[in-house]
Amino acid sequence: MQNPIFSVSEFNEMLNFHLAQLGEVVVEGEISRIDVSRGQWLFITIKDEYAAVDVFGVAFQLSGWRALEEGMKVHVYGVASIHQRSGKFSIRAERIVPAGEGAMKIAFERLRSQLEKEGIFDISRKRETPRFPQHIGLVTAKGSQAYNDFIKVLKHRMGGMHIYFSAVSVQGVDAVDAICAALVELNKRDLDVIIVCRGGGSMEDLAAFNDEKVVRAIFASRAPVMTGVGHEGDVTLADMVADVRAS
């Protein structure tokens, strides 16, 4: 039986069809090259000891991309494909996340410095919260210790308040988008304050609260935001931008 003969374009189309069946992939590697084209497209190459792969994405859609640097180990979340005309293999990134506590600390400091220059953490822009708020938005995981502690404290200290609860993932791949969406929805209400909280954990566990998208969502909030993230010694970028950090 004779093997089928493909044109080049047909062959590339077939490869893309099969690659699409993989869905989202997560690839770990060390950044060996970073390039930003016209301030819009981000191109990087990641490698391990034996191989390398090119990665690209829309820069402004990739939270925290400015904190990336050569030599940093990252996890790339994206979809693999073959460029139809050139036949070049690459991954279109949806997220690029520092991997390991060392890389995360470097990314944290670089992003903190960048946001600080923008004035996002300025004390002058922080708002006071009412002493006795009546309409409170709550963003945390349903049934979590943070949720139970929050409800317990409110019932003990004050009554008559209305709580608008938005259940979210507080860690993992869905956490950032879930927290941002919750803040947007709660800001459609006339709230006295929005409280964002979760229990303690490692730097990786708290990664969503060091994400640029979450920081900017808190910054953009119409209602004052109070955070209670991690243990007392844990300080996240979300805490830095919040109007009040709960102790």
Automatic annotation (TrEMBL):
Keywords linked to the UniProt accession: Cytoplasm, Exonuclease, Hydrolase, Nuclease
Cellular component GO terms held in the UniProt record: exodeoxyribonuclease VII complex
Keyword presence, Nuclease: yes
Domain (Exonuclease VII large subunit C-terminal): residue spans on this chain: 121-246
One term of GO molecular function: exodeoxyribonuclease VII activity
Catalytic EC class: hydrolase
Entries under NCBIfam families matching the protein: xseA
Protein's name according to its UniProt entry: Exodeoxyribonuclease VII large subunit
Source organism of the structure: Candidatus Roizmanbacteria bacterium RIFCSPLOWO2_02_FULL_43_10
Lineage: Bacteria, Candidatus Roizmaniibacteriota
